[in-house]
């Protein structure tokens, strides 16, 4: 892990981000005191189709019923 001052971070941001993308962590310091860390993001979890296929969970019939007038107004922002 390297430490750079704020001025260097501002002038070298693109280069620092390339290093971060390669897996390196960089600490940004102000007046020699660490104040922030540039670190690579963790990749989002992989989406799996059918993840809940084997779960027991019946959908109630009410889900498929038409909305009442008041519910529809609330949904559309009129109430």
Q: What are the segments in which pLDDT stays under 50 over at least 5 consecutive residues?
A: none
The outline comes out as elongated
Specify the biggest β-sheet: 3 strands, mixed
Give me the CATH architecture of the domain at 2-38, please: 3-Layer(aba) Sandwich
Query: Strands of the largest sheet, in order across it?
Result: 1-2-3
Radius of gyration, whole Å: 25 Å
Q: Tally of extended strands? A: 3
The residue-averaged pLDDT reads 90
Order of helices and strands: EHHEEH
Q: How much strand content do the residues show?
A: 15-25%
- Counting DSSP H or I runs of 4 or more residues, the number of helices is 3
- CATH topology title of the domain at 2-38: YefM-like fold
Q: Which structural category fits the helices and strands?
A: alpha+beta
Estimate the helix proportion, in percent.
Answer: 25-40%
The CATH first-level class of the domain at 2-38 comes to: Alpha Beta
Intertermini distance: 55 Å
Please provide a written account of the structure:
The protein starts with a strand and ends with a helix. The longest helix is centred in the first third of the chain and has 9 residues, at 13-21. A hairpin with a 2-residue loop joins β2 (26-30) and β3. It has helices at residues 6-11, 13-21, 69-76; strands at 2-5, 26-30, 33-38. The chain has a three-stranded mixed beta sheet. The protein is an alpha+beta fold. It is built from three helices and three strands, in the order βααββα. The chain has a domain at 2-38: YefM-like fold (3-Layer(aba) Sandwich), CATH 3.40.1620. The mean pLDDT is 90.
């Amino acid at each position: 892990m390297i430490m750079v001052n704020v001025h260097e971070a501002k002038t070298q941001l693109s280069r620092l981000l390339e290093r971060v993308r390669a897996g390196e962590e960089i600490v940004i310091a102000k007046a020699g005191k660490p104040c922030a860390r540039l670190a690579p993001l963790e990749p989002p979890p992989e989406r799996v189709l059918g993840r809940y296929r084997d779960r027991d969970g019946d959908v109630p019939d009410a889900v498929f019923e038409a909305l009442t007038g008041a519910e529809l107004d609330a949904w559309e922002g009129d109430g």
